[in-house]
Design a protein that fits this description.
The chain is an alpha+beta fold. The chain has seven helices and 17 strands. The chain has three domains: 2-61, Uridine Diphospho-n-acetylenolpyruvylglucosamine Reductase, domain 2 (2-Layer Sandwich), CATH 3.30.43.10; 68-178, Uridine Diphospho-n-acetylenolpyruvylglucosamine Reductase, domain 3, CATH 3.30.465; 213-277, Alpha-Beta Complex (Uridine Diphospho-n-acetylenolpyruvylglucosamine Reductase, domain 1), CATH 3.90.78.10. Bound molecules: flavin-adenine dinucleotide.
């Protein structure tokens, strides 16, 4: 799985399938259901820590589901596998605003919806009208409204036993130059703050209410700490980076150390933003 995650960490999956379209996806799900084979869904792998034992059963990757259509003036229907970069560049060309917050956020639309990915400029919650998913329990499709998705800060109620297929987004007219300026501002700000060079999966922990995970981790002296090739980045304490051949166990040791020290010194329980999947 290290080939399919931005952290470049993770043991082998028994099988890894990129479904080209919904029909293929439904066929895979029906077959796995009939054979009793477990299924795990991944998108762009930019928020994933896959454990060293890998993943049993079939990993269903949605990154090859790539339709993107402007169906009405301000309304866009986008498949789960479309990258956030492609989505942003397309709506920019169409002079539709609302997705500027995606500037510099990697990953796919499916993962973005599950995570309610966002920045200080906004999040998926703000633009999502509905989400269509395929249930892994019976192979049926379900459509949820924005309210039913129950988007929260870096999360949603989209169930783990469903594959997100597509979403309908409602945007608004905005001149191209204005969108480009806002996105460039966000990208510049990110460039200043984010660690460069090493493999990573963005923020490790969610920010606790009224504080920053990075500030708390830095205050307990973890910046620059290494376990094997895993490091709490000297540039940003809430980014743990892989300098080459780090194991998931190394990253998890850093995660445990950060949690324990922040709890002991600040009484704050850090909550992972990364999704950890697979077996030890
Ligand atoms: C350099 C860098 C910067 C980042 N900056 C930000 C940021 O500013 N803001 C932010 O919010 N995040 C940020 N992230 C984290 C990450 O980009 C987001 O969480 C992103 O939305 C994850 O999308 P993905 O497709 O890569 O999902 P994955 O990492 O593949 O999966 C994430 C979760 O979504 C589920 N999932 C993925 N696709 C589907 C699907 N089709 N159906 C059902 N479940 C699915 C997975 O099972 C998993 O639980 C950053 C990451 C990196 C590497």
């Amino acid at each position: 799985m290290r080939r399919h995650t931005t952290l470049k960490i993770g043991g082998p999956a028994d099988a890894y399938i990129e479904a080209r379209d919904t029909n293929m996806l439904v066929a895979i799900v029906q077959w796995c259901l009939a054979e009793g084979i477990p299924m795990t869904t991944v998108g762009g792998g930019s928020n994933l820590l896959v454990r060293d034992g890998g993943i049993r059963g079939v990993v269903i990757a949605t990154r090859a589901l790539r339709n993107l259509e402007r169906v009405r003036d301000n309304v866009v229907v986008v498949d789960a596998g479309v990258s956030t970069g492609k989505l942003l560049s397309s709506v920019t060309k169409w002079e539709l605003g609302g997705l500027e917050f995606l500037g510099g956020v990697p990953g796919s639309v499916g993962g973005g919806l599950v995570m309610n990915a966002g920045t200080y400029l906004g999040e998926f919650k703000d633009v999502t009208t509905s989400v269509r998913s395929l249930r892994l329990t019976d192979g049926e499709t379900v459509t949820r409204t924005n309210e039913e998705c129950k988007f929260v800060y870096r999360g949603s109620a989209l169930p783990v036993d469903e594959v997100v297929l597509s979403a309908t987004l409602t945007l608004w007219p905005r001149p191209l130059a204005e969108i480009k300026e806002v996105v460039a501002g966000l990208r510049a700000r990110r460039k200043e703050r984010e660690p460069k060079g090493a493999n990573n999966a963005g923020s490790v922990f969610k920010n606790p209410e009224g504080d920053y995970a990075g500030r708390l981790i830095e205050s307990v002296g973890l910046k620059g700490t290494r376990v094997g090739a895993a490091e709490c980045s000297p540039a940003h304490a809430n980014w743990f980076v892989n300098h080459g051949d780090a194991k998931a166990a190394d990253m998890l040791a850093l995660v445990a150390e950060a949690k324990a020290k922040v709890l002991a010194e600040h009484g704050v329980e850090l909550v992972l933003e990364w999704k950890c999947i697979g077996e030890d």
